[in-house]
Each structure stands twice: as structure tokens, then as C-alpha cells.
Amino acid sequence: MRALDYDVAIVGAGFAGLACARAAARRGLSVLVLDRRHAPGERVHTTGLVVKEAAERWEIPATLTRRVRGVRLYAPSLASLDLVAAGYYFLATDTPALMRWLAREAARAGARMQFARPWRGARRDGDAFVLAGGGERVRDIVGADGPRSAVAAGFGLGRNTEFLLGVEAEYEGVAGIEPDRLHCFLDRTLARGYIGWVVPGVHGVAQVGLACRRPAVPNLPAFERKVASLFAFDAARRTGRRGGLIPVGGPVAPFARDGVLLVGDAAGLVSPLSAGGIHTALASGWAAAHAIADHRHEGAAPPAHALAGTRPRYACKRALRALHDIGAPDAVVDAALATRPFAALARSVYFHHRGLTSVDGWRDLARTLLRGGT
Ligand SMILES: Cc1cc2nc3c(=O)[nH]c(=O)nc-3n(C[C@H](O)[C@H](O)[C@H](O)COP(=O)(O)OP(=O)(O)OC[C@H]3O[C@@H](n4cnc5c(N)ncnc54)[C@H](O)[C@@H]3O)c2cc1C
Prior knowledge:
about 375 residues; alpha/beta; FAD/NAD(P)-binding domain; D-Amino Acid Oxidase, Chain A, domain 2; 3 domains; 11 helices; 18 strands; binds flavin-adenine dinucleotide
């Protein structure tokens, strides 16, 4: 039987795939990464905000980011509430440059990258797979190919069925944006099931976007008209547009089978409430690489067993997602914005990675309710 060409083929050079590739190569596995895009950072679909926990764990170079230390949350009436948490921050990123950096890191660790190579399937050959299109023999396949995973479809794994649709425009020259805040807009008409946002990004750009629950389609021009009453767009120039699906139905099942494993959005590992998926994509890619290396090199349990207990289940966030989908009437949100319980809940959503399933989340909630701080 022909020898293996690679230990692992990773489909998708996004956050999950590149974190997986780097860690797997560092563990001594030979790694091939395939992506249908022509180059890393091409046609980015995400806003690219990174939470503090991920920024620290992955040591993202400061030149690719800009710190934002709080959130300004707007009611439908545009009344606003500032939320900060001492020591906490978010990072706006130059996302195309961040993707190029992650790809360089993976290549530097030894992963072989093939862009402009869409996934065309694979067939079983003994205990290996043979990849269509290139004929490489590989032992394991990691599906890191995003919310509509072709790997999941091809191998009969679980698939995402519930989505938000997000769209965003990037501008230069918008004036009047408080630079140390993420500007988040609650509006049941324009952004049902999610929010609108204005992010003061890296290198002076502003990212203006919104998402809503499928099958609704976000109306970006209407949202831009709304925020134009707060920020000056007179000298603004549109420099880019991005958007895509965000899976919010929780982890897919099964997520692995016989040498094939899903990570990141392909595995449904996105917070159903905040819709943040970059942190979990990086972490799930990293964890998958180590589970594969432990299994292949150290005789540990198969990756699916090793990873099953470590995956977030999002039970609480999925319940809150159901409420968010219904959405409170705009008048109720307008009235609630200035109240302590509302501020406490908002702090928990924005500043605690595990929300009210974390001790910190409950401590903060109690403190805000008792003292009324924001
Ligand atoms: C509008 C929008 C805004 C968002 N904002 C944020 C945010 O600010 N912060 C946050 O944490 N999360 C955000 N998210 C979610 C976040 O972007 C995703 O959770 C994250 O990108 C998931 O990473 P991933 O590597 O799993 O998938 P992806 O980033 O989707 O990467 C998948 C890769 O697979 C490749 N691919 C797909 N199909 C194939 C194929 N058939 N063959 C070969 N290659 C293929 C793609 O080209 C891509 O490179 C946002 C999402 C959207 C849509």
C-alpha cells in the first residue's frame, strides 16, 4: 500500500483551520491545508473583533489590532448606555492582515498551504483517504470550511441549520465616532435577533454593519441612514463590503466520524447569543490538532472521544437566543435601557465569555444590581 503523503488534510484556511494547522505541524504531524480562496485574507466575511481572552492566548501582533475598552449600547430611540469592565478590552483587527499572519505562522510551523484549491471530496483507501483533485493520501481530515461545510455534507456529519445573516461596509473618513467604544444598536425592526454595530477599526476605518435572523435580510442602507444622525458621513468613502452567515443553532452532531473531524463554524461552535466565533474557532482548531497528535503519536483515545466532553454546549445561550429571536418591542427596550437589571445583563453578555454560566458573570450581575454601577 502507498505511504501517506500527509498525516492530516485541513479543509479551510480560516481561524479554525490555521490554528489547527499550526498546532498540528508543531506536534510533528505533516499537514496539508486547502482553501478555495486565492490567498489568505482575500474576501474576508467577518467584522473580526477579538475578545481579550483570544488576543492574549494567541499573542496577536499589536500592529494588526486596535484596543477598544468598552461598549456603547444604543436603544432603538438612540438613547445610550456606556458599559466598561476594568481591565477588559476588545480588539478591532485588520482582519485580512490577521489572516495573512495566521497563514504565515502555520507555514512557518511546517504546514503546506494550497490556496485556490476547493474541496472536491475524498475516497477511503484502507485506513487512509485519497483526496480528489490532487490524489494525496492522508490519514485524517479536518473540516474547517465554515458554516456551510462541504466536508460535513460529504461525510454525513451534522450540519448547521440556524443562521444569522450579517452584512458590513467599511468606510474611511467617518467623523464623530467615540474611538474607545464598540457602538452596538438594538433595533427589532432593522436587526431582529441580533444588533447593528459601528466599530472604530484599525488605521482609521469605521466598520458599519448589522445582522438579523434568517430568513430576514439585513437592510444596511436603512441602518446607515439611522446612524448618520450620530456620526458624520459627509466626507466618508466606502472602501469595502463583507458579510456572511453566522451559525447560531449550537454544536452540530455528530461532529466526527472515522478520521474526519469538524472544527470552528463547521462544527457550529459559535456563541448563539453574541454570535462571536473567532475565539472558539481558534480554540477548537488547536484542540483538534492536539487530540489527533495524541491519538496518532501517543495511543490516546480517538479525537472524537477526547474532544466530546470539551466542546461548549451553549445550553443557556441557546435559550436566550430563542428570546432574542422573538425580540422585545422597541418601546420596551427604550424604557429598560436605563435600568439596573438591563445594564447587569448587558455586562454579562459583553464582558464574560461564559456569561451567566461563569462565577464572574454572576458576581458582576450581583454587584451591578446592588450598587447600580455600569
Ligand atoms: C458579518 C459577520 C461578522 C462577524 N463578526 C465577528 C466578530 O466580530 N467576532 C467574532 O468572534 N466572530 C464574528 N463572526 C463569526 C466569525 O467570523 C466566525 O465564527 C469565524 O470566522 C469562524 O472561523 P472558521 O475558521 O470556523 O470559518 P471561516 O472563517 O468561515 O473559514 C472557513 C474557510 O474555509 C474556506 N472554505 C469554505 N468552503 C470551502 C471549500 N469547499 N473548499 C475549500 N475551502 C473552503 C473558506 O474560504 C474560508 O477560508 C462574524 C461573522 C459574520 C458573518
